[in-house]
Write a structure and sequence with these properties.
This is Short chain dehydrogenase/reductase family 42E, member 2. Keywords: Membrane, NAD, Oxidoreductase, Transmembrane, Transmembrane helix. InterPro entries: 3Beta_OHSteriod_DH/Estase, Lipid_A_modif_metabolic_enz, NAD(P)-bd_dom_sf. One of its GO terms (molecular function) is oxidoreductase activity, acting on the CH-OH group of donors, NAD or NADP as acceptor. The protein has a domain of 291 residues: NAD(P)-binding Rossmann-like Domain (Rossmann fold), CATH 3.40.50. Helices cover 37% and strands 12% of the residues. The protein contains 13 helices and 13 strands. It has a 7-stranded parallel sheet with strand order 3-2-1-4-5-7-11, with helices on both faces. The protein has a two-stranded parallel sheet with strand order 6-13. It has a two-stranded parallel sheet with strand order 8-10. Helix 3 links the parallel strand 4 and strand 5. The longest helix is centred in the last third of the chain and has 23 residues. 43% of the residues are buried. Bound molecules: nicotinamide-adenine-dinucleotide (NAD).
């Protein structure tokens, strides 16, 4: 399995037919075709990984609840199925060499509040994937985890796999992080499970920060839409706050290398291991997002407000969202965990272990390029203040008053 040199971003699929067939290095005889399943393969990372692998000659099954929004590459097959559906997994995992498990729910926005679905997908789905890997004698499983399994809102500077423990389960910032942490541990515990008829299941986990790249769907369009509604007039948190990001191509590279490092040819070096994966750079989020404001033609957030105000605003928005859910959908602009964690608190990680053991060598990419692609694909015209801006201003004012009242009464949430 090798990543396609043409790159794995969704659009790269269009010239997939030109990818060279995979050959044995020693003899130039065609190697047996590998078959992999990517759960969550309709999503951004899963589709990118599947397309890259297919272009290098691997037979790929993309398994997802929802259809991919990009055209399938030759060599990929899409199966619309739920990762919690045992029968569907049994059929899909037949004759498979490696499963990349990245189906997940609840990462951002309103999804973050859907506790039952988060639990059953992230924990229940992972249990099911492990069980069926064993049953169908799949020898390798790579799980896409997240840095959130060790980041619970307390600063981490240049953390590594040995020095930073899991966040205690009851102290996670949100249900998504808690369930991803359980799934991360379940996957690592499954390493070494004997397979029926001989062989062993080898597993590893990759822990990326936020993903960016061309046609990324989860973060960039959401932030851009907030900017266009002029909801990002405010900045909060310390200017020294740092975090990592990972370009989708670097993350695809890491997945391919991790799967190879679970084979005998690589001495099973990744067996039972976790790896932080990022671009190898630490940035401040507001500086990082500067190209987005610039290319959309809006000024950058210039009103500095206390993090405590934004946190209380997030509480109000979450409650308004939950109260109105039976009538209409009003997704919170920011959730509590987004405010108290990623944006306001430094959390950066070393990638030395991935470099040394996997041979991971992140390429240099720029967020501005992803923004350029986004701007080209959308009409970005400045508009006047929307109703939501007024709502946000009112909520911020209310949060400020609440913060003041809590301060005076001596009752303070931990973030204040
Ligand atoms: N996007 C990020 O910034 C980020 C950061 C850290 C970790 N991750 C992890 O990377 C992985 C991929 O993220 P992504 O950005 O491609 O997200 P994504 O939302 O684009 O993809 C996830 C996919 O999982 C699918 N899915 C959800 N529930 C399912 C179910 N029950 N059965 C089958 N499919 C189901 C969704 O339909 C979706 O297509 C996830 O595991 C996520 O937790 C993402």
């Amino acid at each position: 399995m090798q990543p396609s040199p043409a790159g794995p971003s969704p659009e790269a699929c269009k010239d997939a037919g030109q990818a060279p067939p995979q050959k044995s290095e020693a003899t130039s005889v065609q190697a047996p075709r590998q078959k992999v399943v990517v759960t969550g393969g309709g999503g951004y990372l899963g589709f990118s990984l599947g397309s890259s692998l297919a272009k290098s000659g691997t037979s790929v099954v993309l398994l997802d609840l929802r259809k991919p929004q990009w055209e399938l590459c030759p060599g990929t097959e899409f199966i619309q199925a739920d990762v919690r559906d045992e029968d569907a997994l049994v059929r899909a995992f037949e004759g498979v060499d490696c499963v990349f498990h990245m189906a997940s729910h609840g990462m951002s926005g309103a999804e973050k509040l859907q506790k039952e679905q988060i639990e059953s997908t992230n924990v229940g789905g992972t249990k099911r994937v492990i069980e069926v890997c064993v049953r169908q004698r799949v020898p390798r499983l790579v799980y896409t985890s997240t840095v959130n399994v060790v980041f619970g809102g307390r600063p981490i500077e240049q953390g590594d796999e040995d020095s930073v423990p899991y966040v205690p389960l009851e102290k996670h910032m949100d249900h998504y992080s808690r369930t991803k942490a359980i799934a991360d541990q379940l996957t690592l515990m499954a390493n070494g499970t004997p397979l029926p008829g001989g062989g062993t299941l080898r597993t590893c986990v990759l822990r990326p920060p936020g993903i960016y790249g061309p046609e990324e769907q989860r973060h960039l369009p959401r932030v851009a839409s907030h900017i266009k509604k002029r909801l990002f007039l405010f900045r909060f948190g310390d200017r020294g706050t740092r975090m990592n990001w990972v370009h989708v191509r670097n993350l695809v590279q890491a997945h391919v290398l991790a799967a190879e490092a679970l084979t005998a040819a690589r001495g099973y070096v990744a067996s039972g291991q976790a790896y932080y994966i990022n671009d190898g750079e630490s940035v401040n989020i507001f500086e990082w997002m500067a190209p987005l404001f610039e290319k959309l033609g809006y000024s950058q957030p210039w009103i500095q407000v206390p993090t405590s105000w934004v946190y209380l605003t997030a509480i109000l928005m979450e409650n308004v969202h939950l109260a109105l859910r039976p009538i209409c959908s009003l997704p919170p602009l920011l959730t509590r965990s987004e405010v108290s964690g990623p944006v306001a608190v430094t959390h950066t990680f070393r990638i030395a272990k991935a470099r040394a053991q996997l041979g991971y060598a992140p390429g240099k990419f720029s967020f501005a390029d992803a923004v350029e692609r986004y701007v080209q694909s959308t009409a970005a015209r400045p508009r006047g203040p929307a109703a939501r801006t007024r709502l946000l201003l009112a909520l911020l004012l209310l949060a400020g008053l609440l913060a003041l009242a809590l301060h005076v009464s001596g009752l303070r949430p931990s973030v204040l």
